Amino acid sequence: MEKVIKNQTEILQKLGIDKLNEMQLHAHEAISLHDEVIVLSPTGTGKTLAFLLPVIAQLDVNIQDIQALIVVPSRELATQIEQVARNMGSGYKINAVYGGRAGNKDKVDLISNPAILIGTPGRIADHLRNGVINLKSTKFVVLDEFDKSLEIGFQDEMHEIMDGVTGVKTKILTSATQKLEVPGFVRLKNPVTINFLEDGVRELVLKTVISSTEDKLFSLLDLLGHLGNQRGIIFCNFKESIQTLSNFLNEEGVGHTCFYGGLEQLDRERALIKFRNGTSQLLVATDLAARGIDVPELDFIVHFELPQKPDEFIHRNGRTARMNKKGVAYIMQWKNEELPSFIKNCKSIELTEGRTPINSGWETLYISGGRRDKISKSDIAGLFLKQGNLEKEELGIIELQQECTYVAVLKSKSQELVSQLNNSRLKKVKVRISVLK
Description:
- The protein is of the alpha/beta class.
- It folds into three domains: 8-199, P-loop containing nucleotide triphosphate hydrolases (Rossmann fold), CATH 3.40.50.300; 204-349, P-loop containing nucleotide triphosphate hydrolases (Rossmann fold, 3-Layer(aba) Sandwich); 362-435, RRM (RNA recognition motif) domain (Alpha-Beta Plaits), CATH 3.30.70.330.
- It is built from 14 helices and 20 strands.
- It has helices at 8-15, 22-33, 47-57, 75-87, 103-109, 121-129, 146-149, 155-164, 217-227, 239-251, 265-276, 310-317, 377-387, 411-421; strands at residues 36-40, 68-71, 94-97, 116-119, 140-143, 170-175, 192-195, 204-211, 232-235, 257-259, 282-285, 300-303, 327-334, 347-349, 362-367, 395-400, 405-410, 424-426, 429-431, 433-435.
- The strands form four sheets. It has a seven-stranded parallel β-sheet with strand order 3-4-2-5-6-1-7, sandwiched between helices. It has a seven-stranded parallel β-sheet with strand order 10-11-9-12-13-8-14, sandwiched between helices.
- Strand 16 and strand 17 form a beta hairpin.
- It is globular.
- It starts with 7 loop residues before the first helix and ends with a strand.
């Protein structure tokens, strides 16, 4: 185990955060003092840090079992929390398990117990059932986005998991929407609730774009031309709609990536990587992207297809105007279509034809080495700046993972860099470098 760090100031410095916000301070205090805490706060307000800090502060360095279990509804949320926890540099072993990832990889990673295990209900229940993990010593259970994890589709697995944590001391539930009833198998007795939902997203503006055609495609193109080179998510209700829209955008030369449940896990991860590093400014997605994904601050979101439930509307809107920053939610409405009753206070806008959306000037390169090869971000930067002769402004975001690395570079330099740097050595490891398609 690395040197264990519990000092909050030191951890925040590692994360580049000056101080906690009001919700995080209240949540930290409540979790430190009470055994059952429900944290309700809008998307993007920092709930992950709100529960990780007090949990890590209470872990015991002398215990070699799984001390904290964090259950999440999606793979993307699992990997996001894992990354945040690793970036905190606490020194404790942390692992994430989820569907779409090889079970054998999990077994290798879990030969020695992590102090913190993060995972989706199905994969955790499967490992529990097969004896891969033992939760008898687990003292902390976090149900993140619990309103989603406790839906009907996860009930059996959640019941099994809660039956497996017999010695739990602290239960923490978080959500960005109000869940009126928590199932009995969670066994809450008298939880303390931290509710910041009323604070809402004060800087969010709602605007309606009226389309003369039912498919709304060219109206969307006009909107994207009006927005120019900004970063945003276009929400659809179904993967079939995404495929139709994606084909149209490709024909019109509009760069984008797609994200929905039917994609292979690797394709989903790479779509988010391209979106995070600016290779793609647009993400066309289902409500899977409305919560639990790690993406940067967005300028806007578009409801290309109208949300079917109030919660979907709230979570979609929560992707922009985060942490008191400004953002706009555009609602695409066919002229003969009625808005749901929960969509209110919208201002209709007029758009002019003509402006073509500007595509990103960046490209993502794949490198076959990662954290497991003892490679660091500075090693990668040195390779591209010194051997690749890049200027600092030509090198974008470096995303270091366990087994590989993704690097954003100027598109005009990408092919030259691949030719020049492929099969280079980093920390005595020969790495392959290629353009990520």
